[in-house]
Design a protein that fits this description.
The complex is a heterodimer of chains A (191) and B (388). Chain A has 191 residues and is mainly beta. Chain A has 1 helix and 14 strands, in the order E-E-E-E-E-H-E-E-E-E-E-E-E-E-E. In chain A, a hairpin with a 5-residue loop joins strand 7 and strand 8. Chain A is elongated. The relative contact order of chain A is 0.10. Helix content of chain B is 10%, strand content 42%. With 388 residues, chain B is mainly beta. In chain B, the strands form 5 sheets. In chain B, strands 1, 2, 3, 4, 5, 6, 7, 13, 14, 15, 20, 21, 22 and 23 form a 14-stranded mixed sheet that branches. The chains are: A mainly beta (191), B mainly beta (388). At the A-B interface, loops of A face strand 10 and helix 5 of B.
Chain lengths: 191, 388
């Protein structure tokens, strides 16, 4: 018996909360499951995910998302492959409008790698300039470039440390575990 | 029903077809490899009267009853095709009318979308029980307790393409399963072991006399031996089976044809025991309890066509006891000595049967096979044969 012939199908995500917590996604495979009750739709295994030793990778899908699924010729082996490419999915203008909120960024379609989340946040990398960062839907961002320059725009910032915090920039600020601040080695502020 | 030593009758759309039995012939055939049995009816239709009545258009229902001595074949069919065979004259559209039939369940299939849960044999039992079979014979319980999805498929297609590639039962002694309907309208899901171990329904003796009247129902007047071509099963003699186990590890199993099932007899195949001729990639193992059954089922079911390498074609007087899935004893005398040929005389499984009514007489043609032979230790080349 020949084994290993697979076909691609479209599907709609029903649920990502795998009761077995093993990364499976419940999908209404189309058109096969068009008459199924939601609870009867199959749980599809992830098609790819890094597995080497204990390294794991997992992506969830939103309910209602369109996805590509794959089944073998017996339709017993079923996998979820990737999001389905609807025309708007990779419309760069949607991402550009988010990245344009960052004046420090150079945004060029042909060199950008990005992921846009449903909440409007964008994770990106510019292969030309080395800019790498995150812009959230509120317009706040955290970017580092190839030269190591970092730009943050935050609402509030909180840094927690179990030990000391050293900040070196021309001068030096040291905050020890007791909260004592020392500036340039001699000016101290006691907690 | 016509009188005489043969009981022969046709029905059309449930009603008796009023035509003398000498005015038609038919063939009823079944096979352990065919889900739906088939038949042919032949009429002499020189004036195209039958065709004009449209009684042989596709979908029309026909029934055939064919019996002898209170043993009957009986099944219902629908027309697949009809054709004109042997025109009586170039000026007339008329001649022999051949009607090709297929089992009536074929036309009762509709596409179904459903999730089935349970073992494969219980799912098949549940599906087959919906139809009007004479009986549903599933003597062995399989494992494969899993979720099985029927995605807009007809029942026969779902059973053949989604379930049969995986079916496994510990009771089958590692032999493959077959799903088929016989010419008595019995639905069968049986392992090779179950079928081959069944009690023979006939003791067929070869006499070579080509006259039915001088012979009994179990006397063959023709036997031709033949073998399945080596190229058809060479790849499953020795296989490397591979799969990813539940821990992500790559596993390799060495598999040998003689282990399916293993017994003391010899496969009449000479092959180098150390050379691996085939490979098969199996489904990944999971923590699902059906997973191991599904893996075993895959590599055992791949052997369905390799189980019988020694075959005979037998012609004998019409014998309705002998249908696909049954076994018979065959006795072939040595020429001039009347002693039985030791190797060829044996128990065989019927893999195909054709029961023929010519209008005057009845015959049965069989293809029978066996998996191995009873070669004695004295046989010179025993050690070179598989299992020897």
């Amino acid at each position: 018996m020949k084994y290993g012939s697979y076909t691609l199908h479209k599907g709609i995500v029903i649920d990502s909360k795998d009761p077995e917590e093993k990364g499976r996604i419940q999908v209404r495979v189309l058109p096969h499951c068009s008459e199924f009750k939601e609870g009867d739709c199959p749980w599809l295994k992830p098609f790819s995910g890094a597995y080497f030793g204990e390294e794991l990778q997992f992506s969830s899908f939103e309910k209602g998302a369109l996805v590509w699924c794959m089944m073998d010729e017996t339709e017993h082996e079923k996998y979820i492959v990737a999001p389905y490419h609807v025309p708007l999915f990779f419309d760069f203008s949607v991402v550009k409008s988010v990245l344009d909120q960052v004046p420090e960024l150079t945004v060029k379609y042909e060199v950008m790698e990005f992921k846009k989340y449903n909440d409007g946040s964008v994770v990106f990398h510019n292969r030309e300039t080395g800019d790498h960062g995150f812009v959230n839907s509120g317009g706040y961002y955290d970017i580092i470039d190839t030269d190591g320059n970092r730009v943050e725009k935050v609402k509030t910032k909180k840094t927690l440390s179990d030990d000391t915090i050293d900040i070196e920039a021309g001068g030096e600020i040291n905050i020890d575990s007791s909260g004592k601040i020392t500036i340039n080695g001699h000016l101290t502020i006691d907690p | 029903m016509a009188e005489g030593i043969y009981d022969v009758g046709l029905t059309w759309e449930g009603k008796e077809f009023d035509l003398p039995r000498t005015n038609y012939g038919f063939i009823m055939e079944d096979s352990i490899y065919e889900y739906f049995p088939k038949a042919k009816i032949m009429f002499q239709d020189n004036l195209s009267e039958f065709r004009e009545l449209l009684i042989t258009v596709p979908g029309m229902g026909w029934g055939i009853t064919y019996g002898y001595d209170s043993e009957f074949l009986k099944s219902s069919y629908i027309v697949e095709d009809d054709s004109l065979e042997g025109r009586v004259s170039p000026n007339i559209v008329g001649g022999g009318l051949q009607v090709d039939l297929i089992h009536s369940v074929y036309s009762e299939q509709e596409i179904v979308s459903k999730k089935h849960s349970g073992g494969i044999s219980s799912i098949v039992q549940s599906i087959a029980s919906k139809y009007n079979y004479n009986s549903v014979n599933i003597p062995e319980t399989s494992g494969n307790d899993d979720e099985w999805f029927q995605f807009q498929k007809k029942d026969s297609e779902f059973i053949l393409k989604s379930l049969m590639p995986y079916i496994y039962s510990g009771a089958s002694n590692d032999s493959p399963f077959y799903v088929f309907t016989d010419s008595k309208n019995n639905f069968n899901l049986k392992s090779f072991k179950n079928m081959y171990n069944s009690s023979p329904v006939a003791d067929v003796k070869f006499t070579g006399n080509n006259t039915e009247s001088s012979t009994g129902r179990e006397t063959a007047f023709n036997i031709d031996p033949f073998r399945q071509r080596f190229s058809g099963f060479k790849d499953v003699l020795r296989r490397k089976l591979t799969y990813i186990d539940k821990n992500g590890e790559y596993q390799v199993i060495d598999d040998f044809l003689e282990d399916h099932p293993s017994d003391s007899r010899i496969l009449s195949i000479k092959a180098d025991k150390g050379i691996f001729t085939g490979n098969q990639m199996l489904v990944d193992e999971t923590e699902n309890r059906a997973s191991k059954d599904n893996i075993k089922g895959q590599y055992i079911q791949a052997l369905r066509r390799a189980m019988m390498t020694d075959k005979l074609i037998i012609t004998l007087p019409f014998n309705p006891k002998i249908i696909s899935g049954k076994t018979i004893n065959v006795s072939i005398p040595q020429a001039e000595t009347n002693k039985e040929l030791f190797i060829m005389s044996d128990k065989y499984l019927v893999e195909r049967s054709k029961h023929i009514w010519t209008g005057e007489k009845g015959f049965t043609d069989l293809i029978v096979g066996r998996r191995n032979t009873n070669v004695t230790n004295e046989y010179k080349f025993r050690s070179q044969l598989i299992g020897g």
